[in-house]
Amino acid sequence: MTTIESAADVAHRYDPVIGLETHVELGTASKMFCGCPTTFGAEPNTQVCPVCLGLPGSLPVANATAIESTIKIGLALHCDIASWCRFARKNYFYPDMPKDFQISQYDEPLCTDGHLDVVVDGRTFRVEIERVHLEEDTGKSLHVGGATGRIHGADHSLVDYNRAGIPLVEIVTRPVLGTGALAPEVGKAYVTELREVLRGLGVSDVRMEQGSLRCDVNLSLSPAGSGVLGTRSETKNVNSLRSVERAIRFEMGRQAELLDAGGRVVQETRHFHEDTGVTTPGRSKEEATDYRYFPEPDLVPLAPDAAWVERLRAGLPELPAARRARLAASLEASEFELGSMANAGVLELVAETVAAGAPAAEARNWWLGYLAQQANAAGVEPAELAITPAQVARVVALVADGTLSTGLARQAVDGVLETGSSVDEVVAARGLVRVSDVDALGAAVDAAIAAQPDVAEKVRGGKVAAAGALVGAVMKATRGQADAKVVRELVLSRLGAPG
Ligand SMILES: [Zn+2]
After folding, report:
1. In angstroms, what is the span from residue 53 Cα to ligand 1's centroid?
2. Of 37, 45, 142, 331, which sees the most CB atoms within 10 A?
3. 135 C-alpha to center of ligand 1: Å?
4. 380 Cβ partners below 8 Å, 6+ apart?
5. Residue limits of CATH 1.10.10 in the chain
6. pTM of the model
7. Across all residues in the chain, what is the average pLDDT?
């Protein structure tokens, strides 16, 4: 498949229906059912015990903090919290789960029937949440010897059980209808907003690149206006916000091409390839019956009492949507500007830059302008850039007090992005100081005049506009560090022309 039709073209003939299943590793100090630590990046198989290795005779004990975090997530997503529910045993044999089953929740999830609103292009889309449930993460397999890192072609596999048993929350949406050509953006906006909610709650570090937030993207197409749901594909472990959008876009094009040619979409899991932006088939989808779920006999039912739930509700922090509404005022932003900032993923960054002392207009310009360009060029989200809002505020302050010109400020930002050093360190290390000292500039101005005598003569003769060539030469000679206004004044006074 070489060309993929645009989402807008596909949406003329088909109604895309998206669904998102998001897995979030909770940031608890210990695992879900044992006391093992959960530190990321530890030596393989050093954070394990008889419970998470599933050794005979070991018994799980539920982690209260993880249950509390799950209830908080449910409340933030406007869900009903079950007053009584049970864990379920999900039976399967994969080497990454040594017990041959995973403790999860099946027909009795802790939280149900919520929603999360997202705004794309000025339109609000309500994404309905079907369920939020709590389970344990699996271990990690490493397939060695193949070109792709996948099991096919590998000559052996290694398994690390450090992750096995880390509390994992799964958030499942209902099918999202009516997004049309905006389906890719709505999918991305949903995961972005969900990540903000989770970050705000402080229940997870939500780092997609480390796998603590992982997303499965379901997509189906139905003939436009038919209301008949099509067969969906499920693209697994899409691990960046941008990839969520790209995966939906690709699947829309792929399925449309298939359906146009009279083919049919197979219900299957697919893998998204970051490098090429395409999805390829994985295994055909298991049915729930394949897992032979039954209530977990080793754990007591979960029965959060109403007073506990209400205490958690009262302790919820301000949610991102409410915070944005409040920010609109403090950022002196119109509804449209607020939307642009939210869509560009810079709203919180602008707010934090303002909180660090920058004027709202300056903070907005930096994040929507130069920094958005840098993020785009690097293929990352602005929030993933190696510069903090406080550092941006520092750059703004140095421009305001005349230390840096706009050009030098950009060089300072580049330096921070490249080296991770502070703004002041970059300014000192790279000698980024605006030269406005008349004595220091005098020599450069004289050199420019000597190098272009014909231009100098024109200026002497009254053609003031010609001075630009000399100012340009001085700016170049000083690597952009001169104050152009001062240079111009010097050139004109040297040549006896009116300023
Ligand atoms: Zn353990």
Report:
1. 7
2. 331
3. 15
4. 242
5. 438-494
6. 0.72
7. 91
